[in-house]
Structures are given as structure tokens and as C-alpha cells.
Amino acid sequence: MNKLISVIILLALSSVSLNAFSAKDKVEVCHKGKEISVAQSAVGAHVGHGDTVGAKDCVSAPETVKAVVIMRCEAGVLVSVTYSDAADVVIQPLPDDPDCTQVLDFLFSRGFALRSITSGSADGDGGLSLYTDYLLIGKIPVE
Are 70 and 133 in contact (CB under 8 A)? Predict the structure, then answer.
């Protein structure tokens, strides 16, 4: 019976000391705008993907909404563009007769990613025209 009591006391003491050690091993990190406590061993991974050590000045990241842009180019000139409501904030107003490369560079500089490119031909105005369609997706901060 005494051995059983001794084992229970040892287990209780070890869990108390482990909890005390764990609390000391925690580091405050600003993760996606929220203050969290992580193990010291996890700090490097968090810092590696953009989190900051210390919760001081931890500010929530702005909310974002997905935006989709589909553009068609013929001979390097933008022929048509359709986009989700969110993308309106980013791509309007477009210049007159924009060059597709300029529009793509503009969207890339705002964090849009190219998801697909398709090309083909179509009969139009009595002749064959070659076109390229681009699908881009990005995130736009909500104000």
C-alpha cells in the first residue's frame, strides 16, 4: 500500500514539475494577427512563415476577399476582361488599348497568381483570329 501511495505522489509531483517547465518553455508569438503561445522549439517555424515573436503590437491582418480576373488577348492587345466584383477595385480604370503584358505585370504586382492559360482561334470579322485567355486569382484587402 505504501508503494502505491509513493507512486501516486511521484506521478503527481512529476506532472506538476512538467507543467511548470512547459509554461516556462512557451513563447508569445503574433500568428495571423492573433496572440498565441507556442513551444520554444516551434518559434523558428513560426518566424519562418512570417509570424513575429512577442505579442506586443500584434494587429489583426486585414480581411481579404478572393478576386478573379479572366482576360482575353489577341496579338498582345487586351480584347476583353471579366472580373469578380472584388477585382473591380484593383483593375479599374484600365488604360485605353492596354497591352496584355502591362495588365499582367500590374496584376502580378498586386499579388494575383496565374491559374491557367488557354489559346485558340476563332472566326471573327471574316478572318481567323488567334487568342489567349488568362485566368488570374488574387486576394484583395477588405476596407
Answer: yes
Q: What is the pLDDT of residues 1-43, one digit of tens each?
A: 566 555 455 455 455 444 444 556 888 888 777 788 888 888 8
How confident is the model at residue 48, as a pLDDT? 77
Tell me the chain's radius of gyration from C-alpha atoms: 28
| Helix residue ranges, H only, the chain | 2-24, 43-48, 88-91, 100-109
Assigned C-alpha cell, 119:
489559346
Q: Are 131 and 73 in contact (CB under 8 A)?
A: yes
Per-chain mean pLDDT for the chain: 77
Ranges in the chain annotated CATH 3.30.110: 64-141
- CATH T-level assignment (fold) for domain 64-141: Translation Initiation Factor IF3 (3.30.110)
Q: 2: alpha, beta or left, given left = phi > 0 and alpha = psi -120 to 50?
A: alpha
Strands 34-39, 26-31: pairing kind:
antiparallel
Closest among 6, 8, 26 to 16, alpha carbons compared: 8
Q: DSSP per residue over 17-33, as a string?
A: HHHHHHHHTEEEEEETT
